[in-house]
Amino acid sequence: MKIAVIGGGPGGYVAAIRCSQYGGEVTLIEESFLGGTCVNVGCIPTKALLKGVEPLAQWSHYGKLGIEGPKPAINIDKLMKHSSRAIQMSRQGIEYLLKKNKIQWIQGRAFEIKDHTVLVQKGDDQINVPFDKIILATGSVSSSIPGIDIDHERIIFSDQALNLSEIPNNMVIIGGGVIGSEMATIYNQLGTKITILEGQSQLLPCEDTDAAHALQKSMHSSGIEIHCNSMVESVIRKEKTVQVTWKHENQTQSIETDTVLMAIGRRPNILPALLDPFGIEYSNKGVLTSPYLETNHPDVYCIGDLNGKWMLAHTASREGMIAAAKIFDKETPPIQYGLQPSVVFTFPELTGVGKRMAEQTYTFPYSANGKARASGIRDGFVKIFLDDHKLVGCTFYGEHASDMISIATMAIQNKLSLSELGFITFPHPTFSEVFSESIELAENLAIHM
Ligand SMILES: Cc1cc2nc3c(=O)[nH]c(=O)nc-3n(C[C@H](O)[C@H](O)[C@H](O)COP(=O)(O)OP(=O)(O)OC[C@H]3O[C@@H](n4cnc5c(N)ncnc54)[C@H](O)[C@@H]3O)c2cc1C
Protein backbone atom coordinates (compact mmCIF):
# COMPACT_ATOMS: atom_id res chain seq x y z
CA MET A 1 0.00 0.00 0.00
CA LYS A 2 1.32 3.47 -0.92
CA ILE A 3 1.31 5.89 2.02
CA ALA A 4 2.05 9.60 1.86
CA VAL A 5 2.77 11.49 5.06
CA ILE A 6 2.83 15.29 5.03
CA GLY A 7 4.91 16.78 7.84
CA GLY A 8 8.08 15.39 9.42
CA GLY A 9 7.41 16.32 13.06
CA PRO A 10 6.98 13.79 15.91
CA GLY A 11 3.56 12.93 14.48
CA GLY A 12 4.56 12.51 10.84
CA TYR A 13 7.93 10.79 11.10
CA VAL A 14 6.71 8.31 13.71
CA ALA A 15 3.62 7.52 11.60
CA ALA A 16 5.88 7.06 8.54
CA ILE A 17 8.17 4.62 10.35
CA ARG A 18 5.27 2.64 11.79
CA CYS A 19 3.58 2.42 8.34
CA SER A 20 6.84 1.14 6.89
CA GLN A 21 7.17 -1.43 9.70
CA TYR A 22 3.70 -2.66 8.73
CA GLY A 23 4.85 -3.13 5.13
CA GLY A 24 3.78 0.18 3.53
CA GLU A 25 5.61 1.94 0.72
CA VAL A 26 6.03 5.29 2.44
CA THR A 27 6.89 8.79 1.22
CA LEU A 28 7.39 11.53 3.80
CA ILE A 29 7.06 15.12 2.64
CA GLU A 30 8.63 17.78 4.86
CA GLU A 31 9.19 21.30 3.64
CA SER A 32 11.63 22.34 6.32
CA PHE A 33 13.71 20.30 8.77
CA LEU A 34 12.99 16.79 9.97
CA GLY A 35 11.67 16.74 13.53
CA GLY A 36 9.20 19.59 13.04
CA THR A 37 8.43 22.07 15.79
CA CYS A 38 9.50 19.65 18.51
CA VAL A 39 13.08 19.10 17.36
CA ASN A 40 13.77 22.47 15.79
CA VAL A 41 11.92 25.13 17.76
CA GLY A 42 10.16 23.31 20.59
CA CYS A 43 10.86 20.44 22.98
CA ILE A 44 14.55 19.91 22.19
CA PRO A 45 15.95 23.47 22.17
CA THR A 46 13.90 24.50 25.24
CA LYS A 47 15.17 21.49 27.17
CA ALA A 48 18.74 22.08 25.97
CA LEU A 49 18.60 25.67 27.24
CA LEU A 50 16.91 24.63 30.48
CA LYS A 51 19.66 22.08 31.10
CA GLY A 52 22.24 24.84 30.58
CA VAL A 53 20.66 27.23 33.09
CA GLU A 54 19.77 24.56 35.67
CA PRO A 55 23.03 24.86 37.68
CA LEU A 56 22.47 28.62 37.92
CA ALA A 57 18.95 28.07 39.24
CA GLN A 58 20.24 25.56 41.79
CA TRP A 59 23.30 27.51 42.82
CA SER A 60 21.89 28.80 46.11
CA HIS A 61 20.72 25.26 46.88
CA TYR A 62 24.23 23.84 46.24
CA GLY A 63 25.51 25.89 49.18
CA LYS A 64 23.58 23.56 51.50
CA LEU A 65 25.55 20.64 50.06
CA GLY A 66 28.86 22.35 50.81
CA ILE A 67 29.55 23.57 47.29
CA GLU A 68 30.94 27.06 47.64
CA GLY A 69 32.37 29.80 45.51
CA PRO A 70 31.05 32.53 43.26
CA LYS A 71 28.00 31.79 41.13
CA PRO A 72 29.24 30.55 37.74
CA ALA A 73 28.62 32.68 34.67
CA ILE A 74 27.06 31.32 31.53
CA ASN A 75 28.63 31.58 28.08
CA ILE A 76 25.57 32.18 25.94
CA ASP A 77 27.33 31.34 22.65
CA LYS A 78 28.36 27.95 24.01
CA LEU A 79 24.88 27.33 25.39
CA MET A 80 23.35 28.15 21.99
CA LYS A 81 25.88 25.84 20.32
CA HIS A 82 24.87 23.07 22.70
CA SER A 83 21.23 23.62 21.73
CA SER A 84 22.07 23.62 17.99
CA ARG A 85 24.05 20.41 18.41
CA ALA A 86 21.11 18.71 20.14
CA ILE A 87 18.83 19.83 17.29
CA GLN A 88 21.28 18.72 14.62
CA MET A 89 21.79 15.30 16.20
CA SER A 90 18.04 14.78 16.53
CA ARG A 91 17.49 15.68 12.85
CA GLN A 92 20.27 13.34 11.76
CA GLY A 93 18.85 10.59 13.97
CA ILE A 94 15.47 10.88 12.24
CA GLU A 95 17.09 10.94 8.80
CA TYR A 96 18.95 7.75 9.68
CA LEU A 97 15.72 6.10 10.87
CA LEU A 98 13.91 7.06 7.66
CA LYS A 99 16.69 5.49 5.61
CA LYS A 100 16.78 2.40 7.81
CA ASN A 101 13.04 1.96 7.29
CA LYS A 102 13.33 2.58 3.52
CA ILE A 103 11.13 5.66 3.65
CA GLN A 104 11.48 8.12 0.80
CA TRP A 105 11.90 11.63 2.19
CA ILE A 106 11.14 14.56 -0.09
CA GLN A 107 12.25 17.92 1.25
CA GLY A 108 9.57 20.03 -0.37
CA ARG A 109 6.24 21.73 0.18
CA ALA A 110 3.04 19.78 -0.38
CA PHE A 111 0.84 22.42 -2.01
CA GLU A 112 -2.12 20.53 -3.44
CA ILE A 113 -3.83 17.18 -3.50
CA LYS A 114 -5.42 15.93 -6.73
CA ASP A 115 -6.92 12.50 -7.37
CA HIS A 116 -4.91 10.59 -4.77
CA THR A 117 -1.70 12.43 -5.69
CA VAL A 118 0.16 15.00 -3.58
CA LEU A 119 1.76 17.78 -5.59
CA VAL A 120 5.05 18.80 -4.03
CA GLN A 121 7.18 21.85 -4.82
CA LYS A 122 10.87 21.10 -4.39
CA GLY A 123 12.93 24.07 -5.52
CA ASP A 124 11.95 24.68 -9.14
CA ASP A 125 10.65 21.13 -9.57
CA GLN A 126 7.23 19.70 -9.00
CA ILE A 127 7.08 16.11 -7.77
CA ASN A 128 3.90 14.06 -7.84
CA VAL A 129 3.45 11.55 -5.04
CA PRO A 130 0.63 9.05 -5.65
CA PHE A 131 -0.93 7.42 -2.58
CA ASP A 132 -3.60 5.01 -1.42
CA LYS A 133 -3.81 6.54 2.05
CA ILE A 134 -2.49 9.83 3.31
CA ILE A 135 -1.61 11.03 6.82
CA LEU A 136 -1.73 14.78 7.35
CA ALA A 137 0.61 16.06 10.07
CA THR A 138 1.32 19.70 9.23
CA GLY A 139 1.45 20.74 12.88
CA SER A 140 0.65 24.14 14.32
CA VAL A 141 1.76 27.77 14.35
CA SER A 142 2.01 30.33 17.17
CA SER A 143 -1.14 32.33 17.89
CA SER A 144 -1.29 36.04 18.51
CA ILE A 145 -3.84 38.49 19.88
CA PRO A 146 -5.76 40.17 17.05
CA GLY A 147 -4.47 43.69 16.46
CA ILE A 148 -0.99 42.99 17.83
CA ASP A 149 1.72 42.96 15.19
CA ILE A 150 4.53 40.48 15.70
CA ASP A 151 7.56 42.28 14.27
CA HIS A 152 9.91 39.33 14.99
CA GLU A 153 12.40 41.77 16.44
CA ARG A 154 11.10 43.16 19.71
CA ILE A 155 7.70 41.47 19.64
CA ILE A 156 8.43 37.82 19.09
CA PHE A 157 7.19 34.24 19.21
CA SER A 158 8.95 31.35 20.96
CA ASP A 159 10.82 30.42 17.73
CA GLN A 160 12.81 33.67 17.93
CA ALA A 161 13.15 33.48 21.71
CA LEU A 162 15.09 30.25 21.24
CA ASN A 163 17.56 32.01 18.97
CA LEU A 164 18.14 35.45 20.47
CA SER A 165 21.78 36.45 20.07
CA GLU A 166 21.51 39.09 22.81
CA ILE A 167 19.91 38.64 26.18
CA PRO A 168 17.29 41.36 26.74
CA ASN A 169 17.36 43.34 29.98
CA ASN A 170 13.67 42.77 30.42
CA MET A 171 10.91 40.81 28.75
CA VAL A 172 7.14 40.74 29.07
CA ILE A 173 5.71 37.31 28.39
CA ILE A 174 2.07 37.32 27.36
CA GLY A 175 0.63 33.98 28.45
CA GLY A 176 1.50 31.94 31.53
CA GLY A 177 0.99 28.52 29.94
CA VAL A 178 3.64 25.87 29.37
CA ILE A 179 5.68 27.78 26.77
CA GLY A 180 5.48 31.07 28.70
CA SER A 181 6.53 29.42 31.97
CA GLU A 182 9.46 27.52 30.42
CA MET A 183 10.72 30.59 28.56
CA ALA A 184 10.39 32.67 31.74
CA THR A 185 12.50 30.08 33.57
CA ILE A 186 15.23 30.15 30.91
CA TYR A 187 15.48 33.92 30.49
CA ASN A 188 15.17 34.62 34.20
CA GLN A 189 18.32 32.57 34.77
CA LEU A 190 20.06 34.38 31.91
CA GLY A 191 19.51 37.65 33.79
CA THR A 192 16.42 39.06 32.05
CA LYS A 193 13.81 40.69 34.28
CA ILE A 194 10.64 38.77 33.45
CA THR A 195 7.03 39.88 33.79
CA ILE A 196 4.34 37.31 32.93
CA LEU A 197 0.82 38.48 32.09
CA GLU A 198 -1.76 35.71 32.37
CA GLY A 199 -5.42 36.28 31.60
CA GLN A 200 -6.74 33.57 33.90
CA SER A 201 -6.63 33.31 37.68
CA GLN A 202 -3.53 31.10 37.88
CA LEU A 203 -0.39 30.28 35.99
CA LEU A 204 -0.86 27.07 33.95
CA PRO A 205 -4.66 27.31 34.00
CA CYS A 206 -5.14 23.67 32.93
CA GLU A 207 -3.09 22.26 35.81
CA ASP A 208 -3.96 21.46 39.40
CA THR A 209 -4.42 24.66 41.41
CA ASP A 210 -2.19 23.63 44.35
CA ALA A 211 0.65 22.65 42.02
CA ALA A 212 0.26 25.76 39.86
CA HIS A 213 0.22 27.98 42.97
CA ALA A 214 3.33 26.27 44.35
CA LEU A 215 5.15 26.82 41.05
CA GLN A 216 3.94 30.40 40.90
CA LYS A 217 5.39 30.98 44.39
CA SER A 218 8.68 29.38 43.43
CA MET A 219 8.96 31.41 40.22
CA HIS A 220 8.08 34.57 42.11
CA SER A 221 10.78 33.94 44.70
CA SER A 222 13.31 33.48 41.89
CA GLY A 223 12.50 37.02 40.74
CA ILE A 224 9.79 36.50 38.10
CA GLU A 225 6.87 38.92 38.33
CA ILE A 226 3.54 37.25 37.62
CA HIS A 227 0.25 39.06 37.07
CA CYS A 228 -2.80 36.80 36.80
CA ASN A 229 -6.31 37.94 35.80
CA SER A 230 -4.50 40.36 33.52
CA MET A 231 -5.86 40.85 30.00
CA VAL A 232 -3.50 42.51 27.57
CA GLU A 233 -5.12 45.41 25.72
CA SER A 234 -2.32 46.76 23.57
CA VAL A 235 1.29 46.19 22.60
CA ILE A 236 2.80 49.27 20.98
CA ARG A 237 6.23 49.27 19.39
CA LYS A 238 8.25 52.41 20.15
CA GLU A 239 11.68 53.25 18.81
CA LYS A 240 13.73 51.17 21.25
CA THR A 241 11.09 49.73 23.53
CA VAL A 242 7.63 48.24 23.53
CA GLN A 243 4.74 49.46 25.66
CA VAL A 244 2.38 46.80 26.97
CA THR A 245 -0.94 47.78 28.51
CA TRP A 246 -3.25 45.40 30.34
CA LYS A 247 -6.35 45.46 32.50
CA HIS A 248 -6.38 43.94 35.97
CA GLU A 249 -9.63 44.14 37.95
CA ASN A 250 -10.83 47.16 35.95
CA GLN A 251 -7.53 48.96 36.48
CA THR A 252 -5.37 49.75 33.49
CA GLN A 253 -1.66 49.09 33.97
CA SER A 254 1.26 49.58 31.67
CA ILE A 255 4.91 48.66 31.37
CA GLU A 256 7.74 49.57 29.01
CA THR A 257 9.98 46.69 28.03
CA ASP A 258 12.79 45.66 25.64
CA THR A 259 11.06 42.57 24.33
CA VAL A 260 7.61 41.03 24.29
CA LEU A 261 7.20 37.28 23.92
CA MET A 262 3.78 36.29 22.65
CA ALA A 263 3.05 32.90 24.23
CA ILE A 264 -0.73 32.60 24.26
CA GLY A 265 -0.72 29.19 22.58
CA ARG A 266 -0.67 27.62 19.16
CA ARG A 267 -3.27 26.96 16.48
CA PRO A 268 -3.48 24.14 13.95
CA ASN A 269 -1.67 24.77 10.68
CA ILE A 270 -4.76 24.37 8.49
CA LEU A 271 -3.90 24.28 4.78
CA PRO A 272 -7.19 24.29 2.82
CA ALA A 273 -5.46 23.25 -0.42
CA LEU A 274 -4.61 19.93 1.22
CA LEU A 275 -8.01 19.47 2.86
CA ASP A 276 -10.66 20.83 0.51
CA PRO A 277 -10.07 18.50 -2.48
CA PHE A 278 -11.26 15.57 -0.33
CA GLY A 279 -13.92 17.63 1.46
CA ILE A 280 -12.19 17.13 4.81
CA GLU A 281 -14.12 18.67 7.71
CA TYR A 282 -12.25 21.19 9.82
CA SER A 283 -12.69 24.37 11.80
CA ASN A 284 -10.13 26.86 13.07
CA LYS A 285 -9.74 24.54 16.10
CA GLY A 286 -8.39 21.75 13.90
CA VAL A 287 -9.27 18.90 11.56
CA LEU A 288 -12.13 16.76 12.83
CA THR A 289 -10.91 13.27 13.67
CA SER A 290 -12.21 10.08 15.24
CA PRO A 291 -10.39 8.46 18.20
CA TYR A 292 -8.54 6.43 15.53
CA LEU A 293 -7.43 9.63 13.75
CA GLU A 294 -9.74 9.03 10.79
CA THR A 295 -11.17 12.07 9.02
CA ASN A 296 -14.50 12.03 7.19
CA HIS A 297 -12.68 10.66 4.09
CA PRO A 298 -11.69 6.97 4.36
CA ASP A 299 -8.26 7.51 2.79
CA VAL A 300 -7.26 10.56 4.85
CA TYR A 301 -5.95 10.52 8.43
CA CYS A 302 -4.92 13.49 10.51
CA ILE A 303 -2.58 13.44 13.51
CA GLY A 304 -0.73 15.73 15.89
CA ASP A 305 -1.22 19.43 16.46
CA LEU A 306 -3.19 19.70 13.20
CA ASN A 307 -6.25 18.12 14.80
CA GLY A 308 -5.90 20.52 17.75
CA LYS A 309 -6.85 17.92 20.35
CA TRP A 310 -3.76 17.70 22.60
CA MET A 311 -0.82 19.69 21.30
CA LEU A 312 2.12 17.74 22.66
CA ALA A 313 4.82 15.75 20.91
CA HIS A 314 4.19 12.43 22.65
CA THR A 315 0.49 12.63 21.76
CA ALA A 316 1.35 13.38 18.12
CA SER A 317 3.57 10.28 18.04
CA ARG A 318 0.96 8.09 19.74
CA GLU A 319 -1.65 9.30 17.25
CA GLY A 320 0.77 8.48 14.41
CA MET A 321 1.10 4.91 15.66
CA ILE A 322 -2.66 4.52 16.03
CA ALA A 323 -3.33 5.91 12.53
CA ALA A 324 -0.73 3.52 11.07
CA ALA A 325 -2.28 0.56 12.90
CA LYS A 326 -5.75 1.51 11.65
CA ILE A 327 -4.54 1.84 8.05
CA PHE A 328 -2.91 -1.60 8.15
CA ASP A 329 -5.77 -3.18 10.03
CA LYS A 330 -3.70 -3.93 13.13
CA GLU A 331 -5.19 -4.10 16.57
CA THR A 332 -4.98 -0.80 18.44
CA PRO A 333 -6.86 0.94 21.21
CA PRO A 334 -8.20 4.42 20.38
CA ILE A 335 -6.33 7.49 21.57
CA GLN A 336 -7.24 8.40 25.13
CA TYR A 337 -6.79 12.15 25.44
CA GLY A 338 -7.69 11.96 29.13
CA LEU A 339 -4.54 9.90 29.70
CA GLN A 340 -2.02 12.03 27.85
CA PRO A 341 0.48 13.33 30.38
CA SER A 342 1.36 17.02 30.45
CA VAL A 343 4.76 18.26 31.60
CA VAL A 344 6.04 21.72 32.39
CA PHE A 345 9.83 21.70 32.53
CA THR A 346 10.26 24.52 35.03
CA PHE A 347 12.38 24.49 38.22
CA PRO A 348 10.87 22.46 39.74
CA GLU A 349 8.87 20.52 37.19
CA LEU A 350 5.11 20.16 37.21
CA THR A 351 3.33 17.26 35.54
CA GLY A 352 -0.11 15.79 35.49
CA VAL A 353 -2.21 13.04 34.00
CA GLY A 354 -5.91 12.22 34.09
CA LYS A 355 -8.34 14.23 36.19
CA ARG A 356 -7.28 17.30 38.14
CA MET A 357 -10.49 17.29 40.19
CA ALA A 358 -12.10 14.33 41.90
CA GLU A 359 -14.11 13.18 44.92
CA GLN A 360 -11.00 12.64 47.04
CA THR A 361 -7.45 13.90 46.85
CA TYR A 362 -4.39 12.88 48.84
CA THR A 363 -1.13 14.79 48.92
CA PHE A 364 2.19 13.34 49.97
CA PRO A 365 5.06 15.83 50.41
CA TYR A 366 8.67 15.47 49.29
CA SER A 367 9.69 16.61 52.78
CA ALA A 368 8.69 13.14 54.06
CA ASN A 369 10.79 11.36 51.40
CA GLY A 370 14.30 10.08 52.17
CA LYS A 371 15.82 10.80 48.76
CA ALA A 372 14.45 14.34 48.81
CA ARG A 373 15.95 14.89 52.27
CA ALA A 374 19.28 13.43 51.14
CA SER A 375 19.17 15.86 48.22
CA GLY A 376 18.35 18.81 50.48
CA ILE A 377 14.96 19.26 48.78
CA ARG A 378 11.80 20.12 50.71
CA ASP A 379 9.75 21.72 47.95
CA GLY A 380 7.46 19.30 46.09
CA PHE A 381 4.58 16.89 46.40
CA VAL A 382 2.50 14.31 44.64
CA LYS A 383 -1.26 14.69 44.65
CA ILE A 384 -3.48 11.81 43.65
CA PHE A 385 -7.11 12.09 42.61
CA LEU A 386 -9.61 9.33 43.38
CA ASP A 387 -13.18 8.74 42.28
CA ASP A 388 -15.02 5.90 43.96
CA HIS A 389 -11.73 4.82 45.57
CA LYS A 390 -10.06 4.44 42.15
CA LEU A 391 -7.04 6.37 40.91
CA VAL A 392 -8.22 8.75 38.17
CA GLY A 393 -5.54 11.42 38.13
CA CYS A 394 -2.18 12.44 39.46
CA THR A 395 -0.02 15.55 39.65
CA PHE A 396 3.63 15.73 40.59
CA TYR A 397 5.20 19.03 41.49
CA GLY A 398 8.91 18.80 42.21
CA GLU A 399 12.24 17.31 41.23
CA HIS A 400 12.07 14.44 38.66
CA ALA A 401 8.33 14.97 38.18
CA SER A 402 8.62 14.42 34.43
CA ASP A 403 10.18 10.99 34.91
CA MET A 404 7.63 9.86 37.50
CA ILE A 405 4.35 10.73 35.83
CA SER A 406 4.51 7.56 33.70
CA ILE A 407 4.04 5.43 36.83
CA ALA A 408 0.69 7.10 37.41
CA THR A 409 -0.23 6.93 33.71
CA MET A 410 0.42 3.19 33.68
CA ALA A 411 -1.56 2.69 36.87
CA ILE A 412 -4.59 4.64 35.63
CA GLN A 413 -4.52 3.25 32.09
CA ASN A 414 -4.35 -0.33 33.39
CA LYS A 415 -7.03 0.42 35.99
CA LEU A 416 -4.86 -0.89 38.83
CA SER A 417 -6.66 -0.87 42.16
CA LEU A 418 -5.19 0.87 45.20
CA SER A 419 -4.39 -2.46 46.82
CA GLU A 420 -2.65 -3.72 43.64
CA LEU A 421 -0.60 -0.52 43.59
CA GLY A 422 0.08 -0.84 47.30
CA PHE A 423 1.76 -4.22 46.77
CA ILE A 424 4.33 -2.85 44.31
CA THR A 425 7.78 -2.32 45.86
CA PHE A 426 9.41 0.98 44.92
CA PRO A 427 13.20 1.18 45.26
CA HIS A 428 14.60 3.09 48.24
CA PRO A 429 15.68 5.82 48.41
CA THR A 430 13.98 7.30 45.34
CA PHE A 431 11.68 10.20 44.70
CA SER A 432 9.21 7.70 43.22
CA GLU A 433 8.41 6.44 46.71
CA VAL A 434 6.21 9.52 47.17
CA PHE A 435 3.79 7.93 44.71
CA SER A 436 3.52 4.61 46.58
CA GLU A 437 3.20 6.51 49.87
CA SER A 438 0.36 8.60 48.44
CA ILE A 439 -1.46 5.38 47.57
CA GLU A 440 -0.92 4.12 51.12
CA LEU A 441 -2.15 7.46 52.41
CA ALA A 442 -5.39 6.93 50.49
CA GLU A 443 -5.70 3.53 52.17
CA ASN A 444 -5.02 5.13 55.56
CA LEU A 445 -1.81 3.12 55.75
CA ALA A 446 0.96 5.65 55.04
CA ILE A 447 4.12 4.76 56.94
CA HIS A 448 6.06 8.02 56.72
CA MET A 449 3.25 10.46 57.39
C1 LIG B 1 8.61 26.27 22.54
C2 LIG B 1 7.88 24.93 22.50
C3 LIG B 1 8.23 23.95 23.42
C4 LIG B 1 7.59 22.72 23.38
N1 LIG B 1 7.95 21.77 24.31
C5 LIG B 1 7.32 20.57 24.29
C6 LIG B 1 7.69 19.56 25.22
O1 LIG B 1 8.59 19.73 26.04
N2 LIG B 1 7.05 18.37 25.17
C7 LIG B 1 6.04 18.13 24.26
O2 LIG B 1 5.47 17.04 24.26
N3 LIG B 1 5.67 19.07 23.36
C8 LIG B 1 6.29 20.28 23.35
N4 LIG B 1 5.94 21.22 22.43
C9 LIG B 1 4.85 20.91 21.47
C10 LIG B 1 5.38 20.03 20.32
O3 LIG B 1 6.48 20.64 19.72
C11 LIG B 1 4.28 19.80 19.31
O4 LIG B 1 3.13 19.31 19.97
C12 LIG B 1 4.70 18.77 18.28
O5 LIG B 1 5.85 19.20 17.58
C13 LIG B 1 3.56 18.50 17.28
O6 LIG B 1 4.00 17.56 16.36
P1 LIG B 1 3.35 17.48 14.90
O7 LIG B 1 4.06 16.36 14.23
O8 LIG B 1 1.90 17.46 14.99
O9 LIG B 1 3.72 18.87 14.21
P2 LIG B 1 5.08 19.65 14.01
O10 LIG B 1 6.13 19.20 14.92
O11 LIG B 1 4.73 21.09 14.04
O12 LIG B 1 5.53 19.25 12.54
C14 LIG B 1 4.81 19.65 11.43
C15 LIG B 1 5.74 19.67 10.25
O13 LIG B 1 4.99 19.81 9.06
C16 LIG B 1 5.74 20.56 8.14
N5 LIG B 1 4.82 21.09 7.13
C17 LIG B 1 3.80 21.95 7.34
N6 LIG B 1 3.16 22.18 6.17
C18 LIG B 1 3.78 21.47 5.22
C19 LIG B 1 3.59 21.29 3.82
N7 LIG B 1 2.61 21.90 3.17
N8 LIG B 1 4.44 20.48 3.15
C20 LIG B 1 5.46 19.85 3.79
N9 LIG B 1 5.69 19.98 5.11
C21 LIG B 1 4.85 20.77 5.81
C22 LIG B 1 6.38 21.62 9.00
O14 LIG B 1 7.53 22.16 8.37
C23 LIG B 1 6.72 20.84 10.26
O15 LIG B 1 8.04 20.36 10.23
C24 LIG B 1 6.58 22.46 22.42
C25 LIG B 1 6.26 23.44 21.47
C26 LIG B 1 6.90 24.67 21.51
C27 LIG B 1 6.55 25.71 20.48
Residue share in helices? 25-40%
According to CATH, the homologous superfamily of the largest domain is FAD/NAD(P)-binding domain
What spatial form do the alpha-carbon principal axes imply?
Answer: globular
Query: Span between N and C termini?
Result: 58 Å
Number of domains: 3
Structural summary, described in words:
With 449 residues, this protein is an alpha/beta fold. It has 3 domains: 212 residues, FAD/NAD(P)-binding domain (3-Layer(bba) Sandwich), CATH 3.50.50; 110 residues, FAD/NAD(P)-binding domain, CATH 3.50.50.60; 95 residues, Enolase-like, domain 1 (2-Layer Sandwich), CATH 3.30.390. Helix content is 32%, strand content 27%. The chain has 14 helices and 25 strands. The strands form 7 sheets. A 5-stranded parallel β-sheet has the order 3-2-1-7-20, with helices on one face. A 5-stranded parallel β-sheet has the order 9-16-10-11-12. Helix 1 runs parallel beside helix 10, helix 3 packs antiparallel against helix 5 and helix 3 crosses helix 7. The chain is globular. The termini are far apart. The mean pLDDT is 97. The site of flavin-adenine dinucleotide (FAD) has 37 residues, from strand 2, helix 2, helix 3, strand 4 and helix 10.
What keywords describe this structure?
five-stranded parallel sheet, single chain, binds flavin-adenine dinucleotide, 449 residues, 3 domains, alpha/beta, FAD/NAD(P)-binding domain, 32% helix, Enolase-like, domain 1, 27% strand
